[in-house]
Design brief:
By secondary structure, this protein is of the alpha+beta class. The chain has a single domain, classed as Peptide methionine sulphoxide reductase MsrA (Peptide Methionine Sulfoxide Reductase, Chain A). It contains six helices and seven strands; from the N terminus they run H-E-H-E-E-H-E-E-E-H-E-H-H. The chain is globular and about 40 Å long.
Length: 223
């Protein structure tokens, strides 16, 4: 009988094997040039909740990704990390600015969303801040609703850390989602409605340009 390798083990092995020859080419920014393999393990659901600093820019990035059906900015409250999982940082109390993404798993995988999250949407090495925004509400968190998503997110984050893809340690937490509240109307589609705002020009528009450059097969113009 042919042995079967657990998909998460295969993911970690594949990531390290592909990145090992270029381990010295660490990125010096959240959008470095090291290619990251795509996780092949799929989540069973078609929603993802990601926190990576001010939700304006994170929302704008995922609204330009093929396969994403909707993105809503809001305030997510993480639950405490389960006991017995030493690879997870305990979630801090209070909310984080986050986005709720609805996507078609037939068009894009949860793994690809995580890849965009880490390499384009924010800098996962910054702690309790993101660019000019400072405070625990701007920290990097992947919020999960089931064990399948937790396993994928944790394995992918740890594979990036082990391969030293970034020049600094990854601060991203993986935590259960306790609650999500939709943000006020003026926060929704902020980048679209305020394209000339100085904050958008400096902090958000470069992310869209990087998405187009790094993921041309996934980039789409908003209709």
């Amino acid at each position: 009988m042919r042995s079967v390798v657990h998909p998460l083990v295969a993911l970690a092995a594949l990531t390290l094997a592909l990145l090992a020859p270029d381990a010295q080419l660490r990125s010096h920014s959240p959008v470095g040039r090291v290619a990251v393999p795509v996780p092949r393990v799929e989540a069973a659901k078609a929603t993802a909740v990601l926190a990576g600093g001010c939700f304006w820019g994170v929302e704008a990035v995922f609204e330009h990704v093929r396969g994403v059906k909707s993105v809503v900015s809001g305030y997510a409250v993480p639950a405490s990390a389960p006991k017995g999982e030493p690879t997870m940082k305990p979630a801090k109390p209070g909310y984080v600015e986050a986005v709720l993404i609805e996507y078609d798993p037939g068009e894009i995988s949860y793994g690809r969303l995580l890849e965009i999250f880490f390499l384009v949407a924010h800098d996962p090495t910054q702690g309790d801040r993101q660019g000019p925004d400072v405070g625990p509400e701007y920290r990097s968190v992947i919020l999960v609703r089931n064990e399948a998503d937790r396993s994928i997110a944790t394995a992918y984050r740890d594979s990036l850390e082990n391969a030293k893809v970034f020049s600094k340690p990854i601060t991203t937490e993986v935590a259960s989602l306790k609650s999500f509240r939709v943000a006020e109307d003026f926060h929704q589609d902020y980048v679209v409605r305020n394209p000339t705002a100085p904050y958008v020009i400096v902090n958000d528009r470069p992310k869209l340009e990087e998405l187009r450059r790094r993921f041309p097969d996934l980039y789409r113009d908003r209709s």
